[in-house]
């Protein structure tokens, strides 16, 4: 389909801006724009058709089942969109004085209290913009805590070999060194490996629990003991929190710092790549270092406290992504204590899929899973030349979004499947049928799998070409040349 | 079946599923959690609310806020009450866009991918740069991203910030800098803008030097001179700009900046008490492999049709892990989409007119408000006035009249306690300005 720029024609427009008949002052010559930007000139009906067509070429949870592992693609309740658009939230300026923002601050306070209860840790900052920024914030908190304790030499962070890529990347950005710990055949952290690696240079551990294999670390109490006994801290990556809400709490497991993904566990729609929200909860000892401002309650009123001498500083503008807070708070209030049932259904759905698919795909870790599980297509690959990628692409022809593939890295041909709690049994059964049918196709007609998808707006795309000769914006110049060339041909 | 929330399984479903799994209860599924770390009591959280009651509760909370429909507001300082076109609401509620994840599977995501490609194009056009990422968190964190790029590109560790760069942007850079092994120096303002000679001096051995146009006081910086000043000693010149100004003001790429960054809220996003919004980061081609975050590229499919994919992913954390150019994954795609739709709606003429109306209203405000100007500089959308009493008190008193007159600069700049920063967007009318002038005359009189 055409780009919006290719639909542009000089002199057309959609929006009209008021001028109020006021004289316009001259901008100094050297600061004034010399050449107008080549924004599209398109009437509103064509803009509407353009973005309608783009929406039609996209697939969301609203379109169908979306078992993308580690992403917790649950239903996004529409009431959340209604309440976030209330003028009192939507049109509130972030620098409004606290007395003019009491409703917003009260909502944030309540959200902090629920998050604290879910994590089992007392103090929360809502500021981080996403999970990875929550990670970075957590690592900065560790550095501040150790500096305050007079132990600035603690400079090593340990992560699991199953960790999300964000963990090691955050370690680098926070200025720490990285060390990796191995995973056992059961999918737990290797305690002997850990004991050998944790020493007085260790700042802490970053761990997702349940792990990206969808398995709860059965030795978590010993893991916590290993770190705490050597004066180090534990960081909980909340990417998989949807497995355990109301069943187990990171604070009770021994974690000192936790981030949440509001766009996973608490239903902020992911918007094709964002926004998210990555609040962080900590133990009381780490509270003084939280980003400023923090939220304080004085009786019935709330205020933002900026005077925080030990704070690591600010990690984002204002008090955080407030619209995300409104949606997540509304989501939590729709459940109340039944948030526990949310996690129970997520775990039940995942185990049901696992039980019904284990005989047709490889299962590298043969245990009950939590909210997600990892299958492997290695037998299909070895015997029929069909890869995890082929399986994923073929699922599209069944109207199902593929699982996460080739992650975690410790599993060859990985298919990481997370159904979430909101799906009906019928949807789960459709997925099972599709996966089983694909496994049969791998034997009977592997070429179909190799050429999938056949029903999407495009076939498989050449990613190597995109990376080799990057075209990352529309080439107006080439377009203009082509037009000039066409004009020459017509004239000649 | 639960009485709360958004669950779908019936009791019969649950029984059938437990049987298929081969366990007798839900509890059995959770036995892998060691007994010592299981929560043995219900969560102590407020009771569940059915939807109708939930909406009333949130309406009550929203009603306690003084939003811009309740106070005539002239607050700005980084977030602005510009008009958001109706078609933004239309498309941000399309479920195919709203409820999609990051486009890892391009065949399922051509809509979002093409929209990001179009967004990148718009950002490059507006800033005069070669490459834009798919968005950053906000206007503060993209400044930290620019520091990380410059640290690795130049090998230098010094960050120079104009003091007239938004205070929150400077605070965030200072939070991130130690982790990058960088230190921050600030250049004080001189009568409301930055002195290029002073900027050049500080930037001599720096990795990058960041200034803001228009600056945090609303004044127009001598941006081309500042970019040249930064570049003299080999520092990368970086402009923090506002998209709403770039129909009228020169593109940073045209005056030699290495990168252009900023907060996108003013184009297409509601104020929303500070977020979520989108930050943008654009740079010259030489930085393409150091860019943080998602970048969408054009390619072709098996049948030769044009299509779009996430590209240059070897920069990113899920491939490169600790050697990645950033840890960012989730960005602000939906908010950037709102920006793209707004830019399409405005077009080049509308964007220029938007800037013209803002400057015209600012000039009208200078004329109507009977207070001395704090700085003798050309402005864009914000005007700084000297107040005879502390500006905080002016704000408090004016709000009693239903007018929020602007931002008390002393909240961030010691020594400027008597400066009030008044922001004008195209949503304010000359009559609104007249009312502001009357209220200020009364409370300052």
Oligomer: heterodimer
Which sequence of strands runs across the widest sheet of chain B? 2-8-7-6-5-3-4
Please state the average pLDDT score of chain B: 97
Structural class of chain B: alpha/beta
The run of helices and strands of chain B is HHHEHHHEHEHEHEHEEEEEHHEHEEEH
Share of helical residues of chain B: 25-40%
Question: Runs of chain A with pLDDT <50, length 5+?
Answer: none
Strand content of chain A: 5-15%
Tally the beta strands of chain B: 14
The residue-averaged pLDDT of chain A reads 96
Overall body shape of chain B: globular
Order of helices and strands of chain A: HHHHEHEHEHEHEHEEEEHHEHHEEHHHH
Which overall shape of chain A is indicated by the principal axes computed on the Cα atoms? globular
Structural class of chain A: alpha/beta
Residue share in β-strands of chain B: 5-15%
Q: Could you give the order of strands across the largest sheet of chain A?
A: 1-7-6-5-4-2-3
State the helix count of chain A: 17
Which keywords apply here?
A: 492 residues; alpha/beta; seven-stranded mixed β-sheet; three-stranded antiparallel β-sheet; 11% strand; B: 445 residues; 14 helices; 14 strands; 38% helix; globular
Walk me through what this model shows.
The complex is a heterodimer of chains A (about 500) and B (about 450). By secondary structure, chain A is an alpha/beta fold. In chain A, about 40% of the residues lie in helices and about 10% in strands. Chain A is built from 17 helices and twelve strands. Chain A has a seven-stranded mixed β-sheet, sandwiched between helices. Chain A has a three-stranded antiparallel β-sheet with strand order 10-12-11, covered by helices on one side. Chain A has a two-stranded antiparallel ribbon with strand order 8-9. In chain A, strand 11 and strand 12 form a beta hairpin. The longest helix of chain A is centred in the last third of the chain and has 20 residues, at about 425-445. The two termini of chain A are about 30 Å apart. The mean pLDDT of chain A is about 95. Chain B is of the alpha/beta class. In chain B, the strands form four sheets. A seven-stranded mixed β-sheet of chain B has the order 2-8-7-6-5-3-4, with helices on both faces. Chain B has a three-stranded antiparallel β-sheet with strand order 11-14-13, with helices on one face. A two-stranded parallel ribbon of chain B has the order 1-12. In chain B, helix 9 runs parallel beside helix 10 (about 225-230) and helix 12 (about 335-370) packs across helix 14. Chain B is built from 14 helices and 14 strands. Chain B is globular and about 80 Å long. In chain B, strand 5 (about 210-215), helix 10 (about 225-230) and strand 6 (about 235-240) form a beta-alpha-beta unit. The model of chain B has no long low-confidence stretch (mean pLDDT about 95). The chains are: A alpha/beta (about 500), B alpha/beta (about 450).
């Amino acid at each position: 389909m055409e780009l919006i720029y290719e639909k542009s024609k000089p002199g057309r427009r959609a929006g009209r801006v008021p001028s109020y008949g006021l004289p316009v002052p001259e901008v100094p010559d050297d600061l004034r724009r010399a050449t107008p930007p080549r924004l599209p000139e398109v009437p509103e009906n064509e803009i509407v058709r353009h973005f309608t067509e783009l929406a039609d070429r996209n697939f969301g949870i609203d379109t169908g089942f979306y078992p993308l592992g580690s992403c917790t693609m649950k239903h996004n309740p529409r009431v959340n969109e209604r309440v976030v658009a209330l003028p009192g939230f939507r049109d509130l300026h972030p620098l409004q004085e606290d007395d003019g923002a009491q409703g917003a601050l009260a909502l944030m306070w309540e959200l902090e209290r629920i998050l604290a209860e879910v994590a089992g840790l007392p103090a929360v900052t809502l500021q981080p913009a996403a999970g990875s920024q929550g990670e970075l914030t957590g690592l900065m908190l560790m550095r501040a805590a150790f500096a305050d304790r007079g132990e600035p030499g603690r400079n090593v962070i340990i992560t699991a070999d199953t960790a999300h890529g964000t963990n090691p990347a955050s370690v680098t950005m926070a200025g720490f060194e990285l060390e990796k710990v191995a995973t056992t055949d059961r999918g737990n952290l290797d305690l002997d490996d850990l004991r050998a690696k944790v020493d007085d240079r260790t700042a802490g551990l970053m761990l997702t629990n349940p792990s990206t294999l969808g398995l709860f670390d059965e030795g978590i109490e010993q893991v916590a003991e290993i770190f705490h006994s050597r004066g180090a801290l534990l960081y909980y990556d909340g990417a998989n929190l949807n497995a355990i809400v109301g069943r187990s709490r990171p604070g009770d497991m021994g974690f000192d710092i936790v981030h949440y993904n509001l766009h996973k566990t608490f239903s902020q729609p992911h918007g094709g790549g964002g926004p998210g929200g990555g609040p962080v909860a900590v133990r009381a000892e780490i509270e003084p270092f939280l980003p400023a401002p923090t939220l304080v309650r004085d009786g019935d009123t709330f205020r933002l406290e900026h005077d925080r001498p030990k704070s690591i500083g600010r990690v984002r503008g204002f008090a955080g992504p407030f619209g995300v807070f409104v949606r997540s708070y509304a989501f939590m209030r729709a459940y109340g204590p039944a948030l526990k049932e949310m996690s129970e259904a997520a775990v039940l759905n995942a185990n049901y899929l696992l039980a019904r698919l284990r005989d047709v795909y490889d299962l590298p870790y043969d245990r009950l899973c939590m909210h997600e599980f990892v299958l492997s297509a290695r037998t299909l690959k070895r015997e029929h030349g069909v890869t995890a990628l082929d399986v994923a692409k073929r699922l599209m022809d069944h109207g199902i979004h593929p699982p996460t593939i080739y992650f975690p890295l410790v599993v060859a041909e990985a298919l990481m499947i997370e159904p979430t709690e909101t799906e009906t049994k019928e949807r789960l059964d459709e997925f099972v049928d599709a996966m089983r049918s694909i496994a049969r196709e791998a034997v009977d007609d592997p070429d179909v799998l190799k050429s999938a998808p056949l029903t999407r707006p495009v076939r498989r795309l050449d990613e190597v070409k995109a990376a080799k000769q990057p075209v990352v914006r529309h080439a107006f110049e080439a377009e203009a040349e082509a037009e000039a060339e066409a004009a020459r041909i017509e004239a000649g | 079946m639960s009485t709360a929330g958004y669950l779908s399984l019936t009791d019969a479903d649950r029984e059938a599923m437990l049987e298929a799994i081969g366990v007798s209860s839900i509890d059995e599924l959770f036995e892998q959690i060691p007994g010592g770390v299981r929560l043995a009591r219900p969560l102590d959280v407020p009771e569940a609310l059915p939807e109708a009651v939930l909406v009333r509760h949130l309406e009550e909370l929203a009603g306690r806020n003084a939003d811009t429909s309740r106070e005539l507001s002239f607050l700005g300082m980084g977030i602005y009450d510009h008009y958001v076109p109706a078609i933004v609401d239309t498309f941000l509620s399309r479920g195919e866009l709203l409820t999609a994840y990051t486009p890892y599977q391009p065949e399922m995501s051509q809509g979002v991918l093409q929209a990001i490609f179009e967004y990148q194009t718009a950002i490059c056009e507006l800033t005069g740069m070669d490459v834009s990422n798919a968005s950053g968190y906000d206007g503060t964190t993209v400044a930290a991203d620019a520091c990380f790029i410059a640290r690795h590109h130049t090998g230098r560790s010094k960050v120079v910030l104009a003091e007239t760069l938004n205070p929150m942007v400077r605070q965030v850079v200072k939070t991130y800098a130690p982790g990058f092994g960088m230190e921050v120096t600030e250049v004080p303002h001189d009568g409301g803008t930055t002195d290029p000679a002073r900027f050049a001096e500080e930037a001599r051995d720096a990795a990058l030097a960041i200034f803001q146009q228009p600056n945090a006081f609303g004044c127009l910086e001598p941006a081309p001179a500042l970019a040249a000043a930064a570049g003299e000693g080999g520092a990368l010149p970086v402009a923090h700009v506002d998209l709403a100004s770039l129909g009228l003001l020169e593109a940073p790429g045209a005056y030699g900046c290495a990168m252009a960054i900023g907060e996108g809220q003013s184009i297409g996003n509601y104020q929303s008490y500070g977020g979520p919004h989108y930050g943008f980061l654009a740079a010259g081609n030489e930085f393409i492999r150091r860019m943080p975050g998602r970048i969408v590229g054009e390619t072709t499919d098996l049948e030769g049709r044009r299509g779009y994919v996430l590209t240059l992913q070897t920069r990113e954390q899920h491939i490169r892990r600790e050697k990645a150019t950033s840890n960012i994954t989730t960005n602000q795609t939906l908010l950037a989409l709102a920006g793209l739709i707004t830019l399409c709606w405005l077009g080049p003429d509308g964007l220029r007119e938007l800037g013209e109306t803002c400057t015209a209203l600012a000039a009208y405000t200078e004329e109507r408000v009977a207070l001395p100007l704090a700085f003798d500089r050309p402005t864009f959308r914000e005007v700084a006035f000297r107040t005879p009493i502390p500006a905080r008190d002016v704000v408090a008193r004016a709000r009693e009249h239903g007018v929020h007159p602007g931002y008390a600069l002393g909240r961030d700049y010691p020594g400027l306690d008597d400066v009030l920063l008044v922001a004008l967007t195209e949503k304010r009318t000359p009559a609104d300005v007249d009312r502001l002038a009357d209220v200020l005359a009364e409370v300052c009189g």
